[in-house]
C-alpha cells in the first residue's frame, strides 16, 4: 500500500463550503479520477483518506493537506493532473508527494494567515497590532455549543505584521481608493484553536478596531515553527529523504 500526501487550495466561493462538503467533493473526485484507493475493513468500508488541520468555514486557504492510501503504485504527477481535472474550480491540487514515513500531523504546529481589512488604514491597523502584541493576555468571547466561553488569544500569536498594500479586490472602481490594511500573522495551532476571527476580536478588545466590512482571511502556509519563528514545509522531509 502506498501513501500519498497532497497540498490543495480552497479559493473563491468555496471558502464558504464546510470541511465535510469539501471532503465529500474530494472523495468523489478520487473516484472519478480512477484512483485505486485502499479501503478500511469492517461492515462499512470507507476510503483511507486522512485530513490534516482543515481550515474553518468562511476562510480561504492556499495550504490544506490530506493523505490518501492506494493499493497500487501511483505516479504523483499523474495523480495531481487527474485530480485537478476532476475537482471543481477553487480546489486545486498544488503538490503531491509520496510519504516516506512519519506522522504528517506532527510536522504542523502553526499557520500563517493573511487577513485583509477593507476600510481600515494600514497605520490604524499597525497601532492596534502594536497594542495587542504588547499585552500578555487578551481574552475574547467564543460562542460554543455549551454557551459562551472566554479564550485567551495572545499566547497563540507568534507574530503579526502589517503590509501597507492596496486591496486585491479590484472588483470596482473604488477598490484601489479604499484603505486596506493587510495583517500577516503566524498563529500556533493550540487547543482550543485560535481562528482569524478570534485575532480580529482581540484587536477590537484592545484597540476598538472594528472593520466596516467583513475581513477576508486566507491561510497561506502551515508547518512546524523553526528557531526563528518561520514555518517549515511539512512535505519537505518526504522530498529530501
TrEMBL record:
Domain DUF2344: 3-196
Residue ranges with Basic and acidic residues bias: 225-241
Pfam families: DUF2344
Protein name listed in UniProt: Radical SAM protein
Region (Disordered): 221-241
Any coiled-coil regions, as ranges: none
InterPro entries: DUF2344
